[in-house]
Amino acid sequence: MRQLAEEQAALRRVATLVAGGARPDEVFTAVADELAHLVGAEATFVSRVDHRRVVGSEPEAYVTIVGSFGRVSDAVPVGFQAGLDSRTVSAEALRTGRPARISGERLASGPFAEIVRRLRLQAAVASPITVAGRQWGVIVAATTQRDLPTGTEIRVGHFMELAATAIANAQAEQRLRDLVETQAALRRLAMLVARGEPPEVLFAAVTREVLRHFGHDTARMIRFELDGTATVVANEGTAGPHVRVGERWEGYPPNGLTATLLRTGLPARIDDYRAIEGGEPYVREGLLAAVAMPVHVHGRVWGMIAVGSASGPLPPHTEQRMTEFTDLVATAVANAQSRAELMSSRARIVAASDEARRRIERDLHDGAQQRLVALALRLRSAVASSETRGVGPEIAEVAEEIMDVIDDLREISRGIHPAILTESGLRPALRALARRSAVPATVDVRVDGRLPEPVEVGVYYVVSEMLTNAAKHARASVVEVDVEASGGRLRVHVRDDGIGGADSRRGSGLVGLKDRIEALGGTFDVHSPPDQGTSVTCDLPVPAASRPDE
Known about the structure:
This protein is an alpha+beta fold. The protein has helices at 2-19, 24-39, 72-75, 89-96, 104-108, 113-119, 152-194, 199-214, 257-264, 280-285, 318-384, 392-416, 419-424, 426-436, 453-472, 510-519; strands spanning 43-52, 60-70, 81-83, 100-103, 123-131, 134-143, 218-224, 230-237, 268-270, 289-297, 300-309, 441-446, 479-486, 489-496, 523-527, 535-541.
């Protein structure tokens, strides 16, 4: 009766711990502690049983210490892993499904003989732990006495039948916490995707989240190139001479994660780098085991995400838990590729349009304008001729009209593709726009040297369109233009004091400007509240070193 009361009290303490939200390792340690006091053992430990694949052989079982108490805590700490030797009492308990006892010479000469001698253990009892209808692990209680009391197996077995519920509940609570943390991590990453962050920023963020979430020693992302090579795109945690972000990933083991995943397109696992050919660099890095998950984009294996452990094999469910991260990376990569393809398409369209503009401008300058100028000169010459004195005034008038047409053509030509922009650069071209503007305009251009031609053309058209809108639609009295290049970015700000209300979504000329700027990898923002003027801001990437003035 007293024993039953002690067991019930011990279970209540464990259940209270679970209800309070304790982590599984705290619950496992509490179970080991309570059992030691119940049966009078000086050393107890709880171990989880998993299986690992060994190259060229059948999967083998191994145990991971998840909770310990007493003399054994330092010798086999939490996280300690070992193969499940058939000679151990743990193996016997798991094989029979019942508690088992070992003592004397059998214990002293077993696979853990050195630990047994060091701790002076003489007897032990092991009991399988069954959770959700399957063998989850085993608990071992050991003593320095010659043997444990008669009936210890029954007490241990009965206690663990009840304690298994607490273990199951603790794991369920942990799974819920993991789910909440995973969703929070995925939300953070999804925000980066939604903001259109550059791929390298997203890759680094995903790798950090994977390392933090899975709690191991390294996380790595590898991209498979179309030419059959691989590139390290992100790394967090351990590293070595073979790990260089942004450079080739090569020299990997023929039966390692990369080679296996490239060959099969499926998740891959290495449970002991010491046991595979070519695993030495990873062992020197401090890794013993790793798991890799493929990232599939548009039906192709784009790359992989891997996590590594310095202490031993990763839990069996690691692959499943990583799937959500690899799915998000796949979505982000697909989005980035689509965005890059769209930008390339836009850039091709803009480039073709600019080339057409230049061709028309050349044709007007070299063809129609020159012919009209020649015709005007001939008419003026005819005015001076004696043969045309009767119609001289009329011919002179026609010559003046032709010169007006030439001026109009020159103005049109400037709008199509300004020669001053090609010849002198952005600052003189924008100042020329300001001089011709119907609305007073101030221009401040802080740019050293020349920028790439597509950037200069894009900025020119933005400023030209805004000056035209200020005069035709905004009823503005002044326009301010500010252009600055610094830190590899070009920032353009054009503001007027007109009536506002401009909206690029209504199909105005702002839509074309937005497309042009975004085709250059930049951003185009319009702020135009009613009666508060219109402000356009552009931000474009430019080379850190501008091309020299031509």
